[in-house]
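re: that chain from earlier
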Amino acid sequence: MLPVNTLLPIVSGVLHTLDFVFEWLLTYSIHSTLLVGGLLLLTSTSVGRRIVAGHGTWLWRFALVGGLATASLQSLRTAAPLGGTLRLDRNTPQRTMIRMEVQQSGSIDDRGAMQWSSPDGTHRVVTSDIEVTPVWPLLLFGAWFVIAGALLSWFLVIRARFLRSIGPRRSADHTLAGNALRYLRSEDHVRQEVRLTVSEGLASPVALGASEICLPERALSELDPIRMESILAHELAHLVRRDPMWLTIARVIEAVFFFQPLNVLARRRMQEAAEFASDAWASARVARPLDLAHCLARVAEWTIAAPRLPVPAMAERRGAVLVRRVERLTTGRVVHEVAPGRAARLGAVVALVGLVLLAPRAAIGSDQPSNGILGTTQPHPREILVLRREVAGEAPAQGEMVMVRVRR
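^ sequence. v structure.
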């Protein structure tokens, strides 16, 4: 067995790291609730919807990732926020307990023990073990790690199954649809390379990754070139706006932070805003919103029995969302989304700083300054015995059990 002066820094460092991560997760749950919940309340009113009109996508993206930034910044600050600290163990300092038993040096095996001599010259050998209290943060952290890992793995499995289900994809760059896509790219000065592919196992046009548009086989035969151009403009808008990447990020956040149900609502609202924005982008490029509305209805017929997809699909969001999309296109009430300007970016920074300074944070035990996230300052076990000797004025007797609690 390793001596306590070797094990203590290792155990203390691991426990401090786990406590830090656990406190960060709890703080993130508070901040994400404030961000996502506040935006949900704002958009639940007609006035709020008018305020965020044209800014929906980036606002929901900001709400999804903003809590990650503010929780990290606040966890690194030594000063407590103005909103206070939510303590989960009634302000009981988190400690590592060291149990030390004093015996005669010749009566036990000296391996794993450390030598100590009292002032009167009596030789002692101190054996020790380490006990961690409380245990519940470690149990909750372990449960989060297992569940988050399982959900993240399931998302990756679903994505891999989808790619296998659509089967092999053949290039359609040299078709009429490919020519239409190149024309759209040149008209809008889209510099990134975009591949156009076709799959027989696909029910709806989709944007894959950062540079691929995949069409169902039937789209080439059932849609005329004019409506095909509307479909391509819609999917190209997803790639230009990086919607596939953000949908993947949202799905990962949703899996890892499964304990925050508001992330599911934020991801759905972000998807809806992305579809509205892509419709507006496409209708502005092809100047035929009615043709785009007809394409939405036609593609929706193809996807009635199809499962929901883990990638942005043209008519994957069925029901009320699809009805609102068609209604906006047919009535001329399309709202074009604009990039956040200086005022919007400044407002986002102010909101983040305000959360860091004002929002409460979670903590286990009392606030203790630390030299780093991955390590703590711990007294040497030999120094612990010297302190006891100086306080008590005498050496520990043989067989005496000395219980020492060490702050982390």
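The two ends are 23 Å apart (CA to CA).
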